[in-house]
Amino acid sequence: MRAPGLLEARQSLAPYARPAVAVDLVILTRVDEALHVLLIRRGEAPFAGRLALPGGFLRVGDGVEDQGEDLDRAAARELQEETGLAPGDVLLEQFATFGRPGRDPRMRVLSVAYYALVRPEVAQRVRAGGDAAETCWAPVAELAGSTLAFDHGHILEVALGRVREKLDTSSLAFSLVPESFTIPELRAVFSAVKGEPQDPGNFRRKVKRLVEDGVLETAPGRRRTASKPAALYRFRAAPRR
Q1: Mean of pLDDT values over 169-176
Q2: Is 8 a catalytic residue?
Q3: In this structure, are 122 and 67 located in the same domain?
Q4: Which is the catalytic residue, given 134, 165, 179, 217?
């Protein structure tokens, strides 16, 4: 039995537009020390045959008794459907919403975007799914000025800016390095994400600050290198994978 007032509430909302809501995923990993993003080749219109970010529409109900799925659940579902990866395999975080009129030729669509950071060994398990004809890991550095479907080029730019901003003050890089790592290994991640080499001396001072701030801590053991054994570090209270 419908609760009193629900029909009236629905009728009062009738004049308001009901745009569709989608989730889009910026999935990043390292391939040969360079930052790559996962793209799909769309198998359906619009933009059939064009490269795009993985994603899809939020599942909704009738808007009253059944209001559909949660945004985070939709992002996790799309991740699994489009790539075969489970949410526990990656770091998945919401970073922005995009709603420019005309961004989708079919209808008014608002997109809630997430970035996902994937360790290289996990990235090898990605497979095409959903409406994707194929998937590929594309070097981020080669996508400047490219024409991805919809406004996905802009979404990618915003995601990269957010990830680069958080990299210096958080454990975000945890998802792109082994559980324990040397300073040069971590520097390689920063260089890949930021798209420019990191000065070794300055980076050592950065690591020292991250240790002082409680982001990093020393890890047991040493890593054998060509010159001498290197100290190991790890992220403090790193999220489980």
Answers
A1: 86
A2: no
A3: yes
A4: 134
